[in-house]
Design brief:
about 0% strand, mainly alpha
Length: about 180
Amino acid sequence: MNTHDAYLAAMALRWHVNPHLSHTRQTIGHHGATAAILAHALWPDDAEVLWACIAHDLGESVTGDVPSPAKLANNTLAIELLIAETNALAAMGISYQPSDRLDLVDRLEAYLWMMHHASAQRLRPEWGKSLAWIEGAALEHGVPVANAVQVILSDARKSAGVADVAPVARGWWQRCSKWAMGEAK
């Protein structure tokens, strides 16, 4: 691994084109570390997902943090970015294993960052959809993971001084948890 290049890559900024979060100055390294903290809380014995959390965005040091909506709207752009980021990782001698666990903590960390720095954004439809996705993915990993994610989200709401969630997700968790416990009708 080219340690120096990886070290520098970790300093690249996230959220730089997001008008609500660009002021926050989160780095790729910070994001990877906090995603790893979340992954360790959910799966303490999974060293592979911890490394994936740290490494997964380091390739963005050559492309910048292009927002998901831009990638979703332009498949060609998404593919070109993936190629460039993969090549950057290879040049650094870095590889990791993508997984559903990584996807969950990656989105959860982004949601928590938003809650801490711009909690009013939780009411926007895109963040409501993100929350619903996070809760659904957590439930797919089993009730213990889903419950742990709910505690993490509840703590974030308390820290941000808000009691409600995005309208899209309101009541969703209660319905799904009843279903998972076999109590749904």
